[in-house]
Specification:
Layout lengths: L4 H12 L24 H9 L1 H27 L6 E3 L2 H13 L8 E5 H5 L4 H13 L4 E4 L4 H7 L4 E5 L1
Parallel strand pairs: 2-3
Antiparallel strand pairs: 1-4, 2-4
Length: 165
């Protein structure tokens, strides 16, 4: 059994969410996990089921998504020659197929969608295909809760948005 879950989690954050560890004016920062509540897998499971833990994870995820959407807002407000915003699965799927065929084409900065868009039976298979292709191409994706501040913004695009900066 694992003994140092906090170190393992911190390594995960450092690898996949490094912006959380950077100091600066972007708001969300933590550098250490303190406490001894989760020393076993059972303890970790219990911790994950607690409302306060879910609230912290939800708020952190929302703040991360807001930073991504801040970048999207910059793309919207700048009239750059190569900036592009896509918000239908057809457009995104087409673009990803082109990138797969020609790896020299620019990749999107992010694909963001709401949990509700992903759960919708009408979109599910197409959306999972897009997410799989994005993963294969190492394109960042973010799934947000529709009720969150970030989710409300993504919902304004129909629940799915992809942008190139």
């Amino acid at each position: 059994p694992k003994e140092e879950y906090s170190d393992e989690f911190l390594n995960h954050v450092n690898k996949h969410h490094s912006w959380l560890l950077k100091k600066g004016n972007k708001g969300v920062v933590f550098s250490k996990i303190i406490g001894n509540q989760a020393r076993t897998q059972k303890d970790v499971y219990y911790l994950k089921t607690q409302d306060y833990f879910k609230d912290i994870v939800g708020e952190t995820s929302n703040q991360e998504a807001l930073l991504i959407l801040e970048e999207l807002t910059e793309v919207i407000n700048k009239n750059e020659k190569f900036s592009k915003i896509l918000y239908t699965w057809r457009e995104i799927d087409y673009e990803l197929r082109l990138i797969r065929q020609n790896p020299n084409l620019p990749k999107p900065n992010y694909i963001i969608l709401t949990e509700e868009y992903l759960k919708n039976p009408k979109n599910r298979n197409k959306t999972h295909r897009i997410l799989q292709i994005a993963q294969n191409l190492k394109i960042k994706t973010k799934i947000v809760n529709e009720e969150s501040e970030a989710g409300i913004s993504v919902k304004n695009f129909g629940g799915l948005v992809c942008y190139f900066k």
